[in-house]
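Field: sequence (string)
Field: structure_tokens (string)

Example rows 1 and 2, in order.
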Amino acid sequence: MAWVYLLIAGVLEVVWAFTMKQSHGFTNFKYSAITIVAMIASFGLLSVAMRTLPLGTAYTIWTGIGAVGAFVVGVLALGEALTPMRVGAAVLIVSGLVLMKLSSS
């Protein structure tokens, strides 16, 4: 179950990153509220996952999901640049996540 909690926490990290951008510096109440709720839920689920997963594994995977997810959302929803260098960086992050998962018992 810890891996499921960690996956959901990572997805919520993407949600709060996107809604923080949409809040325009916390000036839009709706997006600001979603950001804060998603942050609290993400941190809460991360902490539950850390009860059984190693700190390094849980934190690395959580931030990796957030980083790659935010990159994908930025490209698809916000029209950010999709360059070979950025794609390469995302591939390296995903490779690190896979190695981290494989190295944990």
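Row 2 begins here:
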Amino acid sequence: MTNLAIFVSGSGTNCENIIKYFQDDSEVNINIVISNRADAFALVRAERLNVKTAVVTRSEWNDAEKILSLIEGADYIILAGFLLMVPPYLTAAYPNRIINIHPALLPKYGGKGMYGMHVHEAVKAAGEQETGITIHYVNNVCDGGEIIFQAKTTISPKDTPDDIAAKVHVLEMEHFPKVIDSIIKASK
């Protein structure tokens, strides 16, 4: 059995999609969904799907003992809209076992402050003709880990940042759980 811990900060559509994808899989279990925000709707989504949840304050993220005990037994950590930097103790404990999704084609539009609509607004302002998603391993550099997978979508000059976000969201829903599944299968 492969156990996953999912870290979230927001609404949780990716989190819910991952939970549903693995719901009937006898080889993969979602151990826990952890948020740095008590009001993250992702927690409600997880609870509705009978997944254990926890809220950890910003200062508690630096408490290695607390976090490692919360995710005890997890084989992988999945970042699904998690907006804090992963502390070095976690990247050391989970080398190439923390997986993030970013709403752009890294290395473009990554790094500090580049998340959610900030990314889509920057892509639009730059006049890009395409964007997409990047699924990557997490290291101690913001959006700097090894790229696992990318998928692209075209952008028309008429697309608004909201239109771009919607196109990227389709790619996230289609690819993120499948890529996680392929990583797990490849490691066995």
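free_text_note (row 2): The CA atoms of residues 18 and 133 lie 16 Å apart.
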